[in-house]
Amino acid sequence: MKKGSKAAEPDTNGITSDTAPGDVRRGDARRKYDPEQTKRNILDVATQEFSAMGLTGARVDAIAERTNTTKRMLYYYFGSKEGLYQAVLEKVYGDIRALEQDLHVSELDPVEGMRALVEFTFDYHDRQRDFVRLVTIENIHGAKYVEQVKSFKGRNVTVIHTIEDLLARGIAAGQFRSDVDAIDLHLLISSLCFHRVGNRHTFGTAFGRDPSHPRLRVRHRAMIVDAVLRFVRKED
Amino acid sequence: MKKGSKAAEPDTNGITSDTAPGDVRRGDARRKYDPEQTKRNILDVATQEFSAMGLTGARVDAIAERTNTTKRMLYYYFGSKEGLYQAVLEKVYGDIRALEQDLHVSELDPVEGMRALVEFTFDYHDRQRDFVRLVTIENIHGAKYVEQVKSFKGRNVTVIHTIEDLLARGIAAGQFRSDVDAIDLHLLISSLCFHRVGNRHTFGTAFGRDPSHPRLRVRHRAMIVDAVLRFVRKED
Amino acid sequence: MKKGSKAAEPDTNGITSDTAPGDVRRGDARRKYDPEQTKRNILDVATQEFSAMGLTGARVDAIAERTNTTKRMLYYYFGSKEGLYQAVLEKVYGDIRALEQDLHVSELDPVEGMRALVEFTFDYHDRQRDFVRLVTIENIHGAKYVEQVKSFKGRNVTVIHTIEDLLARGIAAGQFRSDVDAIDLHLLISSLCFHRVGNRHTFGTAFGRDPSHPRLRVRHRAMIVDAVLRFVRKED
Amino acid sequence: MKKGSKAAEPDTNGITSDTAPGDVRRGDARRKYDPEQTKRNILDVATQEFSAMGLTGARVDAIAERTNTTKRMLYYYFGSKEGLYQAVLEKVYGDIRALEQDLHVSELDPVEGMRALVEFTFDYHDRQRDFVRLVTIENIHGAKYVEQVKSFKGRNVTVIHTIEDLLARGIAAGQFRSDVDAIDLHLLISSLCFHRVGNRHTFGTAFGRDPSHPRLRVRHRAMIVDAVLRFVRKED
DNA sequence: TATGAATGAGTTTTCATTCAT
DNA sequence: AATGAATGAAAACTCATTCAT
Question: Is D55–C53 a contact, with Cβ atoms under 8 angstroms apart?
């Protein structure tokens, strides 16, 4: 009647994880003791487990088991389960903001820039399910862990700046209406991109239609871009 | 991560719960044996705990403690922690669909009907945070519990019918574009209403702006109605 | 994750129970309150449950559930789980001794009488599995419950008398050897008849041969009679 | 039926257990970390408790208490109560078969070999009460745990081979009859050796004679050997 | 006589964390 | 830097029995 360590069972279907634990081992030779690699390995496995099971649902044992190291190392490097969880949050939030930098939307025409931003946001959420899940999980905990992640706030302002720039240029060009708040717009875009990923399971069972199905993805992407553009566009 | 049985700590701030456990005791006198009341009482407390702590985070002891009964009764009526969780899901999903029935959108002009539907959806999510949180939690578990809730699928079709009716009438009246899918539209509306509630904590800390603040609520409500109407409206 | 009340699961395969609970309802009309019938019904169900699950393994709830009455009645009539168990023992032991009386072995030729006794013992054990199991269970508890069953000791002497009579007559007739102790012989016969029923499960899995299979039954019956007769017979 | 943790009360009287827990600690010094010893210690205590109380009757707490370790280790090594029970079964069954190997019956004259086998079987059951009780307990559970014990079936064939060899040689030598099936004969021998141990309590109270009394043991041993030899011997 | 609801004390199991090596 | 064994505290769940009707 043993249970075995099933670990991270739910929601590993679909386009799976963006993190391939175990075999990360890049760099030159396979040194016997490689602290950095060990840490990275733990972090990758933890990302999967926390994302799949939630903070309370995740099992330290389960994480340790899928690691190249032992449980002790996990405590050695991250201090506690919560410490590890925060490290995961930090890593994951860092990734998305880093990518957003590379968009160079400012060089595009406002409408095209807006389209590019929405498409990027869509694609990112669509692909980084772990990210979406972790955000969801954080919200269940009242965001109290992410609050402690240093440099979390600072990072997020950049998107707002991007949007403000787009809006300003669009208004100046007579393409966009002038009464749209940048943060509100960001919320609107996020909503549309986030919900279909984060709540796809209940949505799927409720309506017998998995929103993450490839065919739907294309349609949703177009729909969301369309909705956002209609929203910001100046009516004449 | 020590606990004590402080229970349901996170996220009980804001416009709190719609369920006032304990004092339900309606009917005649305070009968000592009132199974229905006992069940309802347990269910109400459980709704709060699960919604606040998640399925894994919730503590059976914590639920029992805030109940008029003992832990034993919880098992007597619901069989297990998961059984209780499912009962909560069933109740909560039942509530929203029941309310949707009373909208009588079909009697309104398509545009006004659409506005009414969106406003209702907005208000419901805005008020029923427990519902939003439970849906979120379910998605972390891959919706596997809600799948077992009988009559879950059936209930959800009604919204789609409502939307289909609105769309059809709007198209006929030349007010709406004809290329919108009802389920996609429902997803769009849900996204906009759900996200700002479900993820308000991370959003709040990221942008220093709590989307559930009363002043913002009014603005968001208008924005979402606007966005939806712009999306469905036929451009000439 | 409900467990349901599976109750009496193990070992109900094969030629099942000799007690048909529920529908005993004999006697004249179906009176609404029939204490005797209620008691008998409880006793029958309890026999099955105890026999299948053991004293500790049996569940009062499981018994009550398969009864026409409620759990309360069970306590009303039998006082406690143990009281009910003892009542079951009393009933079951009463049955076998009553049957033994009807053998009238004393009228038969010693060899034929011995054969008849062995065959009867064989058949009884073969058919009354509940009895065999309950004896087994009692032995796990050091026979401490059967000791309290009044008239238990008295009843058993009769078999010994029967054997003594057979032995004496057989010796007198020059058919049997004279150095066999009656109680020892009874033990020998019991052993042969009991073991293949009581331990048929482990025997079955160990040797891939179920000793209770009809074909084996015939062979075993003959073998045991043969073994006993060879044992008592005087060699010349 | 209140308990307290008096543990293993029934049936520890008589020539008690063959396993002396606690003080096993062989090997060099008293190392603080000695997994093998820890496991063996747990296993020994568990053997006693399960044998005395049955699977359902046994208390994990009671086992842990009489151990050098804590309850947690019990789960660490054996996974669950049932897992521990199975480990006990495995150990106990392994022991008897191992001993049987050392008999070297094949070197003896068929009659003497048969006598040696029966005497060995008798002695083993007479001494290893824990084994007898555990087999009994397993049968109450329909042998469903022993079935899962790998290598259980394989082990048992050896006895049959031994018997087949004895029979074949005895027939060839004109000493044994030729119509005896090896498995049936094994059943017969087991019956005689098992029953007087396993059911000695009910037998004792029924006939006021404890079959495990030293004086009776000698007599029974002779009787059983006699009965078996008479059964297999060729009559002329 | 009969019943469904209720319960306290126990029982198995789990989990994050630390110790000895 | 790394490890497998060990643990206390808590969590889920069960059970025989009794109460109010």
Answer: no
